[in-house]
């Protein structure tokens, strides 16, 4: 790799970092640790690296020590494992002090983890980002050993979203009618447009989100996994969007796609396609707590990691967006400790269950009329079958009250208050 090209890329990146608008995020980084940041495209991984770089300079590091290489720069087309050593060569040309190495979107370079391990072994401070969970496959993690902390970066949570929009949201604001109204309006915006940071910049949210989705679809998924039946894959994502709020099997998804395309699409193909979508951080799943092992893994509920992207597939589906957003908030904090409950034997159907928090959560746009029986009735039935649950919540669009039913106290809480509740809100040390 020509050193002059690398020097240009690194020097120009300094200007980008200096000029970047950076809002606070609920992440903290150990100054003595190396990190690999993974997550959805445009979720803010690079901006977090910018913040780390600016903090280093603020604390006395010279800009010449910031060796930042963005592998989406077209000048690096053809870059290979053999070229990585040139980065250290250029670092030596730029500074005689300790360099700090930033490798942004490095997943495109086969074998990157070998260079990353060598850097850590040689005691360099290293920060890496990637938009593919395949970076975390067992053989790669094994090669990295304990030399890196691996952190998943999500789109803005609600706290970060309000901060970026300049909306005050401390406890005092929640009790001020005018200020709480701004928070409610912010929640409506967040519900519809999601938390990808750049949605706050563009006035045409849909065009921006559509462009990001196409990049994820065509670049991060279809091209990277060499998917030949693109029509089937696109239809699968559409079908999954239609299943939000419901459990669905691989077999039924495959059957649904076959009926539309009138072509053979196997269950195994659907399993692979969903794995690709999850690896690109487009989707995640929530499993049934009471199911047998086989059913847990073959009949989950699927959700999109960002409401704005999900909304591309919907038309007037506020209830779907509401449940998806609650799922995102819970999944970001609890990951595989989040479940749903569904039992044909007990007739219990609980949207979300946190056994470690002894909490059951229902989601309903409103608890008036027929929704009352479903939401409250399921929570009451749960107490008769499981006396370990202590907290019962129904998340609604706007309603707020306390319901007492058959000895069960149910908190009905509007979306904005739920998203700021301690149950899902982060202490920054949680994301260290």
TrEMBL record:
Residues 35-162 form the AAA domain. It holds the Pfam family DUF4143. Residues 224-361 form the DUF4143 domain. Signal peptide: none annotated. It comes from the Bacteria. This is Uncharacterized protein. It comes from Lactobacillus ultunensis DSM 16047.
